[in-house]
């Protein structure tokens, strides 16, 4: 996306540009890498998955006649003898947004072909993600210790446990997969695969810093989903 | 990024020779097509038998693999339907047909036919084979992912079929898998069977997502020079829109399957209400069975169009080629496909009128459902107007297309009955519904598949299928299918309920028994007639008439490859350049009755081609 | 052309904008945390939660995921399918209210 110039094609802005791009030959998303377009469409599909989870959760919570537990209390922490609501969740949100910021900067430095900076920032993102997964594990074990199970919980409606473990579990899986890929990409960046255009492992495409952006899209999406989970599961 | 992509020497040389001014007259200037934006795709060429034919990254081979595996599962589905008809027509004749087995066969027949046969065949089979050829790409954009997609499908089919051999057998909850009964004891396969079904579906969705991303990005981002979206054959439009639907609808199925697995294994109560069983309260409680139905049909209704839209697209192309006429109202056809696709996300609960959902929903869903009839009817009119005064070749392919139109109109009109709440309520769960959806999404798409097989077999194998056998195949199937499903409408009207293992002493016994026997016999014959095609294919591969290059005199790109059948990479040294849409048949003033998509305007200067 | 220029700037010398958005996200998260801290209830809580949520989501999508700089063709392809989700949400709200009503009617009042 650094220099959008296509021989014989004049760009138009806004909706006119949209009509022109759509009706032109070869590509609809001008200058968008195949992998990036694929990631966007995949994320759209993934959005529908998370939407279905959250809609199910909404329906389950909305129609229960047993009281829903108060998340503010359930997810609170005792720190120095003071009950702080949602403390752990706030820290997790902080960590995830931090990692999202480092990822955004990694993408930026990637496009500037700043190999070292890009690599370190990806690594920082990976460590942020790992911290998040670790805290989630802590949160899970704390709740399990308190007797919350997927099929029951001591605080109220049994669906609370079911939806909590399922949704955060599915999100956590996404984060974990992201962390694995972040470490791989950090290695690939430091090794210079994107500078020299080394072909990937399962593809004949040449390495390029656009791959960092593609991974970045995924990572920001994970953060995006957390924004929604944070709002609907913890704050509602 | 761009410096990697813009160094394709052949294309730059070509563009500089043609880039003199933007004249409007017919001449070399009019032939100018913008240079390529993206460099030619590097392909991985397999060398061993395994990389060439098994773990192959060539979309055409993957397409054939999908086709064969889907057909194999389809035959299993066919055999299951025979067994069901055996029971319904002649109860007690086969002692192994217990009620449990009957329900298991119903379930597996439905799921196999809808998901593992039709979806896989249209999108996996035809999609993989035709998309790169029709848009002028060398291959799918992510060949490795494409290969993984097929093998995920393979594993999914394996898991599905494995459920026949686990304790309790496959699930018998009907293809809609409604909880709570799907996972309660007493339903066949409530333990292992439903579990394997859910796992298999999740694998299918994962595999399909990989394939679907490939189809979409290939169509959107990897078309050849000159190929605009509005020059694509309708086949590609149909498959494209169906893939979009699949990418957005399968998530709901995935979520539903996952939550049901958790209900089954962990004992959560997402879908399970409080249940009294033999005076005992089960451990479930507080869940909502309706939620599953909403999730299922949020997937399920788009799924109908995932099957139907590729059929719409393919049949448009077949009719156009074999009537030697451009498709009537091409743009209208495209917008109708897109419109049907978009609307299909807003109609799902018309499958649930009697489910006990919010009663007000009937208004909303009946309205949206009936609106869908508009673009659908437009398509039917356009097919008929394409045939109107065409130079029709009444070969096997055309027969299948005509058969499709008849069965589709029939099934579509009964759909209007069922879309209205007040008509649907008495007809719900009767054989009328069976007749409706088999006509509209069973027989009609199947007719298109058969037509497409007869049409594209010369491309895939280089030989014509036998016309004589083909006509036998068609007439037996068409008349037989009508003999099966037409009487079912009547059975539905008199109230015979579906999913009943036997009628016992109900009043339907006297009035429906002869009809059921007739339907069963017809079903046996129609099923057997399908083996004519298999015989035809085997025979043709050995002794069929060689087809040569572009045997149907079609315009679209897939017939214009340098070699027939096309090789890996499709286009030899140079990608084709497209100058027109795929439907320039019988153009006044042209030398031949077709102008291929690659013919530049300067070569057809004297003819009245449409500007596309 | 204007669009292209914008894009060039975006990926070369705009560390400032990323830091700004980053900071804003922290601030907004802090605010939504405060919604819980002060125990706002009812419609106020809902509107605040949703407001901060959509603002955060919008910022992430627009700037971190570069959607603000992408061409409309991509943006529209990504956003329009959300109408299906919106319809699903809208109808499921009606549905859970109805289910709650029937449950209360039959299990609590009727029982």
Task: Lay out the secondary structure.
The complex is a heterotrimer of chains A (236), B (612) and C (111).
Chain A: H1 14-23, H2 34-63, H3 71-74, E1 77-79, E2 82-84, H4 87-111, H5 115-145, H6 159-190, H7 193-196, H8 210-235
Antiparallel strand pairs in A: 1-2
Helix pairs in contact in A: 2-6, 2-8, 4-5, 4-8, 5-6, 6-8
Chain B: H1 2-5, H2 9-18, H3 49-54, H4 59-89, H5 99-135, H6 143-162, H7 192-221, H8 234-265, E1 276-277, E2 280-281, H9 289-323, H10 330-343, H11 361-387, H12 396-419, H13 421-427, H14 431-461, H15 467-493, H16 508-543
Chain C: H1 2-12, H2 15-37, H3 42-64, H4 72-79, H5 82-109
Helix pairs in contact in C: 2-3
Question: What would your notes on this structure say?
Answer:
The complex is a heterotrimer of chains A (about 240), B (about 600) and C (about 110). Chain A is mostly helical and about 240 residues long. Chain A has 8 helices and 2 strands. In chain A, strands 1-2 form a two-stranded antiparallel ribbon. In chain A, a hairpin with a 2-residue loop joins strand 1 (about 75-80) and strand 2 (about 80-85). In chain A, helix 6 runs antiparallel to helix 8. Chain A is globular and about 65 Å long. The two termini of chain A are about 40 Å apart. Chain B is mostly helical and about 600 residues long. Among the domains of chain B are: about 55-225, Cytochrome c oxidase-like, subunit I domain (Cytochrome C Oxidase, Chain A), CATH 1.20.210; about 550-610, no CATH class. Chain B contains 16 helices and 2 strands. Chain B has a two-stranded antiparallel ribbon with strand order 1-2. In chain B, strand 1 and strand 2 form a beta hairpin. The longest helix of chain B is centred in the N-terminal third of the chain and has 37 residues, at about 100-135. Chain B starts with a helix and ends in a 69-residue tail after the last helix. Helices cover about 85% and strands about 0% of the residues of chain C. Chain C contains 5 helices and no strands. Chains A and B meet through helix 2 and helix 6 of A and helix 6, helix 7, helix 8 and helix 9 of B.
Can you give me a brief rundown of this structure?
Chain A has 236 residues and is mostly helical. Chain A is built from eight helices and two strands.
């Amino acid at each position: 996306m650094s220099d959008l110039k296509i021989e014989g094609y004049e760009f138009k802005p806004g909706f006119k540009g949209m009509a022109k791009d759509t009706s032109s030959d070869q590509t609809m998303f001008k200058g968008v890498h195949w992998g990036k377009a694929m990631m966007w469409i995949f994320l759209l599909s993934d959005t529908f998955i998370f939407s279905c989870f959250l809609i199910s959760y909404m329906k389950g919570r909305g129609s229960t006649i047993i009281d829903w537990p108060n998340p503010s209390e359930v997810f609170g922490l005792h720190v120095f003898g003071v009950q702080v609501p949602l403390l752990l969740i706030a820290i997790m949100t902080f960590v995830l947004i931090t990692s999202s910021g480092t990822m955004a900067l990694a993408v930026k430095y990637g496009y500037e072909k700043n190999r070292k900076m890009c690599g370190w920032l990806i690594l920082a993102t990976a460590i942020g993600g790992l911290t998040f997964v670790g805290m989630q594990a802590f949160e899970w074990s704390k709740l399990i210790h308190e007797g919350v199970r997927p099929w029951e919980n001591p605080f109220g409606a049994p669906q609370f446990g079911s939806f909590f473990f399922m949704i955060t579990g599915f999100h956590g899986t996404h984060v974990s997969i992201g962390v694995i890929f972040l470490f791989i990409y950090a290695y690939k960046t430091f090794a210079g695969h994107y500078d020299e255009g080394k072909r990937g492992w399962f593809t004949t495409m040449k390495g390029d810093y656009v791959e960092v952006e593609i991974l970045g899209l995924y990572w920001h999406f994970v953060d995006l989903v957390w924004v929604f989970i944070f709002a609907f599961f913890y704050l509602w | 990024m761009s410096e990697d992509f813009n160094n394709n020497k052949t294309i730059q040389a070509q563009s500089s020779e043609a880039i003199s001014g933007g004249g409007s007259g017919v001449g070399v200037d009019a032939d100018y097509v913008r240079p390529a934006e993206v460099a030619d795709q590097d392909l991985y060429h397999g060398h061993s038998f395994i990389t060439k034919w098994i773990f192959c990254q060539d979309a055409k081979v993957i397409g054939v693999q999908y086709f064969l595996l889907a057909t194999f599962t389809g035959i299993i589905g066919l055999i299951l339907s025979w067994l069901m008809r055996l029971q319904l027509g002649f109860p007690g004749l086969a002692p192994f047909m217990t009620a449990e087995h009957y329900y298991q066969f119903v379930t597996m027949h439905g799921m196999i036919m809808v998901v593992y046969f039709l979806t896989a065949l249209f999108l996996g089979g035809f999609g993989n084979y035709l998309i790169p050829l029709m848009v002028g790409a060398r291959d799918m954009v992510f060949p490795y992912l494409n290969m993984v997609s097929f093998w995920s499908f393979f594993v999914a089919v394996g898991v599905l079929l494995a459920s026949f051999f686990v304790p309790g057998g496959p699930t018998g909850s009907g293809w809609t898998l409604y909880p709570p009964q799907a996972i309660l004891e007493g339903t066949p396969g409530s333990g292992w069977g439903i579990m394997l079904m859910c796992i298999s579906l999740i694998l299918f969705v994962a595999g399909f997502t990989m394939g679907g991303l490939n189809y979409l990005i290939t169509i959107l981002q990897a078309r050849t020079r000159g190929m605009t979206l509005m020059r694509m054959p309708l086949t590609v439009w149909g498959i494209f829109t169906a893939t979009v639907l699949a990418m957005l609808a399968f998530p709901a199925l995935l979520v539903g399957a996952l939550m049901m697995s958790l209900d089954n294994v962990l004992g959560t109560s997402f879908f399970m209400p409080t249940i009294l069983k033999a005076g005992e309260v089960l451990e479930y409680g507080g869940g909502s069975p309706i939620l599953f139905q909403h999730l299922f049909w949020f997937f399920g209704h788009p799924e109908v169009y995932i099957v139907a839209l590729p059929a719409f697209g393919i049949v448009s192309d077949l009719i156009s080629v074999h009537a030697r006429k451009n498709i009537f109202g091409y743009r209208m056809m495209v917008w109708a496909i897109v419109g049907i696709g978009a609307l299909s996300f807003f109609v799902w609960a018309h499958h649930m009128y009697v489910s006990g959902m919010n009663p007000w929903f009937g208004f909303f869903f009946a309205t949206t459902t009936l609106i869908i009839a508009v673009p659908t009817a437009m398509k039917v009119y356009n097919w008929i107007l394409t045939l109107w005064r065409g130079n029709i070749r009444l070969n096997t392919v055309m027969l299948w297309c005509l058969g499709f139109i008849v069965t589709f109109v029939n099934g579509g009109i009964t759909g209007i009955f069922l879309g209205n709440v007040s008509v649907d309520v008495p007809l719900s769960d009767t054989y009328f519904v069976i007749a409706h959806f088999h006509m509209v999404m069973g027989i009609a798409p199947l007719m298109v598949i058969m037509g497409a097989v007869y049409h594209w077999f010369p491309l895939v194998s280089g030989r014509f299928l036998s016309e004589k056998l083909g006509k036998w195949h068609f007439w037996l199937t068409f008349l037989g299918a009508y003999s099966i499903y037409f009487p079912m409408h009547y059975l539905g009207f008199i109230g015979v309920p579906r999913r009943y293992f036997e009628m016992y002493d109900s009043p339907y016994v006297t009035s429906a028994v002869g009809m059921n026997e007739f339907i069963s016999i017809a079903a046996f014959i129609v099923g057997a007639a399908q083996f004519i095609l298999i015989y035809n294919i085997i025979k043709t591969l050995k002794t069929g008439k060689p087809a040569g290059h572009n045997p149907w005199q079609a315009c679209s790109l897939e017939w214009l490859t340098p070699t027939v059948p096309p090789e890996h990479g499709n286009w030899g040294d140079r990608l084709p350049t497209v100058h027109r849409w795929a439907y320039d048949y019988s153009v006044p003033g042209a030398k031949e009755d077709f102008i291929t998509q690659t013919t530049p305007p300067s070569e057809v200067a004297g003819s009245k081609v449409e500007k596309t | 052309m204007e669009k292209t220029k914008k894009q060039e700037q975006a990926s070369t010398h705009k560390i400032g904008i990323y830091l700004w958005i980053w900071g804003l996200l922290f601030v907004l998260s802090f605010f939504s945390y405060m919604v819980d801290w002060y125990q706002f209830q009812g419609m106020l809580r809902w509107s605040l939660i949703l407001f901060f949520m959509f603002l955060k989501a919008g910022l992430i999508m627009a700037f971190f995921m570069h959607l603000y700089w992408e061409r409309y063709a991509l943006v529209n392809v990504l956003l329009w399918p959300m109408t299906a989700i919106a319809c699903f949400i809208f109808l499921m709200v009606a549905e859970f209210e109805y289910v709650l009503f029937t449950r209360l009617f039959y299990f609590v009042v009727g029982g």
